[in-house]
Amino acid sequence: EALAGESIRRIGEFASQQLANTGWPSACLGELSAPVNDAIACTGLRLVADFSPKGTLSDIRFGVDLRGLGWAFGFAGRLVEPLSSQLYVAHLEIGEALDGASGPPVSHTHTHPSVEHAVHAALGVTSSIAASSPAALDPGGSLPQIVFERPEDGIAAFFKPPGWEVDDDGKPPTGRRLSSFLQQSFPSSTVVRDGDHAFGMIHRLDLPSSGLILMGATYRGYYHLKWLLDTGRISREYVVLCHGWICPTLTEVDAPVHHISDKHAAQKTLTHQQRLGRSTVTEMGKPAQTFIRVLAHVRRGPWKLSLIICRIRTGRRHQIRTHLHHVGHPTVADGKYTRAQIFASDSRWCPRNFLHRQRLAFVDIAGKEHAVVEPLPGDLLAALCEVEVWGPSVVGARALAEWTDRGAEPRAWADYLALPVGEAAAPAGAPPHWAGLGQPAGSGRLSPSRGAKVEDLA
Known about the structure:
458 residues, 14 helices, alpha+beta, globular, disordered C terminus
């Protein structure tokens, strides 16, 4: 008790970074006890009350600490009032102070030539070549596109085609740079020219994948969205085609993910192809939770496949691809996480990794709910037309037809009907593929429960 009392007393003296560093591991380990929780919250409220942003580097660092604290309490399910609103308001004020130092609010330009110029610059294509040869501009026939904008809040969403890179890590780009596109689309915006703020992009999407990305066109919008992201208040939903018939009872993978950096010792155990930025499930990784809903068991020739939708609570690099590989169901046409022979076979009918972020749901600064959707791109739709439903599955047939026959717009996670176990391809009562990994066969989870439910992510 004396040791606990001394620890709590010391927490009261912590600066913001120490406070975030204390809350984060405690939340990850499920050891954020009530006394420690209260001590961290009280200290956080005191630091916020004494804070007055001026648009400086110290403000930016304080904002990172606030998000770290918000993540810890949110992950532990203890981000409640008044801590939640006070941390958010202080976070938003940082963005407003940075905007005050950089100029007036902006909205994206609707002048098509400037957007085309951005695309040309990112691709290194001259205007004359692009005008005469659209195929030379983008062999995949798809360009980034602003699909949602709320100028009064400084927030927007855009569609990222495959091959375009979220170039926010300071490394030489390996794909077409989304930062160039955004800088031309928002010519008056400062944040989209700020690499320390990821050029306004609040989350990543793998290079070969397609889908929606949220961004801030102002610092205020960026800080609003980053707070939502780091406290688990943005719903990110994906459609995926993966190998094998996933048992419908597998609804969640909760396994820590670690991205293997270029200098990591584990690189020596990987092939040259795998060394190019691969992630893995390991106890040294960061918490990662992926929710799965199996829609259909399908096949193409001898290959068994599953059509699923995924929803993530965390956003680790390659999280969905890593988790699916971990449970023995890598995504179709994934060159990093499947064997070379399988990848070569997949590539004959599917041109790229079959993973598409189809829906984002979030609230604006006034608290109004928004949902942005992006239908399955033509290349993946064509690949999906190559498969057929296994057996007499009514639910599976309807799910597949929703894309291939009707081309319906994506729906909310809760509106999709999961494949009943009785219609699954595997015999009734057969153990799921992941049951041999030391996990209970009937739980539907891949790790002990932290109490998270998919409904909590709405």
